[in-house]
Design a protein that fits this description.
The chain has 391 residues and is α/β, with parallel strands linked by helices. Helices cover 43% and strands 17% of the residues.
Length: 391
């Protein structure tokens, strides 16, 4: 086995970088879509890119990996197996072996597992190490402990990327040096082959006409995403002529379906489960709602705006930066179903308002969240990290 100092590849002198993205996905959510966009975007710019994923039992990553592989990006899968401790050592050894073969300039990690297991080893190897913090769960329990440990691990990284201004400021407060901190909000990536409105509405069992108003909620059914708050708000909506599709799955689904029944919503609310490439279906809707308790810069919000949907979102994470003006969309307090209900009522009652905000969403996402610029900003960060590591 090569020594750690031998893992750093020689500069080929052509200006391109050899980049490895490393993550342990739980499914396909915002973090995973960021990884999709970065790997394919960097590959398109001529860099040598490998996506290394740790796959846990029962996790299907087809929706994550297929677009990356179609783009020609090399994918390495590491199966997580065995008891606690044993599987982590297996992962560390496998990652080290793969890096010895790839000889990367930069390893970019995503998620606390990758930071905790591999940050120190990358530092010992002399490989430029970059990590993105995609958001904070704020949910307590083990998640809180893992996030605390992740903050400690950040000292091993040459560059730390925050996807929102609040997260950037939090990391500053936690003592991450400003010289290593980079704020890069997420970008909008247009979906491949999006469905037209008629096809998408048919697939989601929505009426062919524009009445009733179709409302979308998209996300994992976990507490941090606040679907329970959304349901409470729907029970308070006093306007008629609307229906809802909840797209996503997760451990809270049964409880949320029971909540919808208790609130008398099941005639208007349908739980669709997880839908691969859900962004392709967004043209079916007239309004998008995000009710999260915590976020980074939510990819799903950018996708909804890119589909021309008026958006109502809670004031968490980077949401106020995505929707900074009243004309861009509606920002309501988190954990405030009454305020959310009033905003939904206003949009449902006014076709003219929906039309105005469709245009505003499209203009905002194209002007402020350009994909190409986002990829270039990461490239600049990588080169900065390489310079730091080489100094």
């Amino acid at each position: 086995m090569k020594g750690w100092s031998d893992l750093v590849r020689d500069d080929r002198g052509d200006g391109s970088l050899t980049v490895v993205h490393l993550c342990a996905p739980a499914g396909v959510g915002g973090l995973e879509r960021v990884v999709q966009g970065l790997t394919t975007g960097l590959d398109a710019r001529g860099h040598r890119v490998t996506l290394m994923v740790v796959v846990s039992p029962g996790v299907d990553l087809t929706d994550l990996l297929a677009p990356v592989q179609r783009a020609g990006v090399r994918v390495v899968t590491i199966r997580s197996r065995g008891w606690i401790g044993t599987r982590e050592m297996h992962e560390i050894r496998t990652v080290r072996r793969e890096l010895a073969a790839i000889r990367p300039d930069v390893v970019h990690t995503h998620g606390y597992r990758s930071d905790l297991l591999h940050g120190w080893h990358l530092r010992c190897a002399g490989i430029a190490a970059v990590t993105t913090l995609h958001g904070s769960s704020r949910m307590g329990g083990l998640s809180h402990l893992f996030e605390y440990a992740q903050l400690s691990a950040l000292r091993h990284f040459d560059a730390v990327i925050a996807v929102s201004r609040p997260l950037y400021e939090k990391l500053q407060d936690e003592g991450v040096p400003g010289s290593r901190l980079h704020e890069i909000p997420n970008a909008w990536t247009p979906p491949t082959d999006p469905f037209d409105r008629e096809t998408a509405r048919k697939a989601l069992a929505l009426e062919d006409s524009d009445d009733p108003v179709a409302i979308a909620w998209v996300g994992r059914l976990i507490p941090i995403k606040g679907c329970d708050v959304f349901l409470e708000a729907l029970a308070e909506v006093r306007a008629d002529g609307w229906e809802v599709r909840i797209v996503g799955d997760g451990p809270e689904r049964a409880a949320l379906e029971a909540q919808a029944d208790r609130l008398g919503l099941r005639g208007r609310v349908q739980f669709m489960g997880a839908i691969p490439d859900a962004a392709r279906y967004l043209a079916a809707f007239d309004l998008f709602v995000l009710s999260s308790r915590s976020e980074g810069t939510p990819m799903v919000l950018l996708e909804a705006m890119g589909a021309g949907l008026p958006a109502i979102a809670t004031d968490v994470g980077g949401v106020p930066d995505v929707l900074p003006r009243p004309t861009d969309g509606w920002v309501v307090p988190s954990e405030a179903p009454h305020a959310l209900a009033r905003s939904i009522e206003r949009v449902v009652r006014s076709a003219e308002l929906r039309k105005e905000r469709r245009s505003a969403s499209l203009i905002r996402v194209h002007q402020a969240f350009d994909f190409s610029e986002w990829v270039v900003r990461h490239e600049v960060t990588y080169r900065t990290a390489v310079a730091v590591r080489s100094s």
